Amino acid sequence: MIPVHVAIIMDGNGRWARQKSLPRIFGHKQGVETIKKIIKAASNLGIKVLTLYAFSTENWKRPVKEIEALFSLLNIFIREESKELDDLGVCLRILGDLSKFPCNIKTEVEYICKITSKNTGLQLNIALNYGARQELVHAFGKMLECGIENPTEEIVSSFLYTAGQSDPDLLIRTSGEFRISNFLLWQIAYSEIYVTDKLWPDFTKRDLEDAILEFQKRERRFGGLIESNID
Ligand code: IPE
Ligand code: IPE
Ligand code: MG
Asked: What does the pLDDT read at residue 35?
């Protein structure tokens, strides 16, 4: 079975650039090319939801120059890819707090989310200024505002940025790091985790297919037992 929801921690742009003795921004630029390819690949493979971790709440700790370069790449991506994404039938949603973003980028991002909101193809989530702890605090605040006194798991889920979507079946992290880095802490409770040494700019459709093949070999038990293991 093809995983319904694939989430990716796109890591390793800086290392990719360093390996080539280039400034880090070149790694980010190449990383955007990978994003474009993987969106198409996911759509062709029949993945329903693709969530890409692009900028974390902790990434503000980076040098201003790098942050500005990342915003500029985001701006170019939105401007150049909006039509193509819409033509592909992609429905775009941003996970994260956009209020800290430069006004022009925020407006453009919100505009593309609005025009693609009725599309029925790939659901593409881009996590921007996203942190799972921030998301939970935000959700709890909203629940209090709504006067919810007896929250259930379903209610909490419905206040997250991923409201209405299924949880990731497969979580991929590139560049060999075995950590979550504050990504989707609630939603990945039962995701299968796949870590590859490939740096994000080098990640290909083939690598995505390899991750899916590995996923297909996993036995998902969700805390229960499979038939053959029952006495
Ligand atoms: C991932 O690549 C992109 C972002 C976090 C924005 P990194 O920039 O973290 O690359 P490394 O980990 O330094 O190689
Ligand atoms: C995770 O990568 C965040 C994104 C991919 C956007 P980082 O490079 O920020 O994570 P750490 O610092 O290695 O944990
Ligand atoms: Mg990194």
From this structure: 98
Q: What is the pLDDT of residues 109-157, one digit of tens each?
A: 999 999 999 999 999 999 999 999 999 999 999 999 999 999 999 999 9
| Amino acid symbol at 95 | L
Nearest atom in ligand 1 to 55's CA? 6
Contact by Cβ (8 Å): 143, 163: no
Q: Report how far ligand 2's centroid is from the alpha carbon of 151 (Å).
A: 31
At 167-225, the pLDDT tens digits run 999 999 999 999 999 999 999 999 999 999 999 999 999 999 999 999 999 999 999 99
Enter the tokens of residue 70: 């990342």
Using the mean position of ligand 3's atoms as its centre, give its distance from the Cα of residue 17 in Å: 12
Q: Which CATH number fits domain 5-131+168-219: 3.40.50.300, 3.40.50.2020, 3.40.1180.10, 3.30.70.20?
A: 3.40.1180.10
What is the C-alpha to C-alpha distance for residues 42 and 208, in angstroms, rounded to an integer?
8
Helix (H, G, I), strand (E, B) or coil at 180: coil
Sign of CA dihedral 88, 83, 56, 101: negative
Which two structure tokens, joined as six digits, stand for 125? 């989530």
Locate 26 and state its tokens: 């070149």
* Ligand 2-lining residues (CB < 6 angstroms): 9-11, 53-56, 59, 177, 179, 181
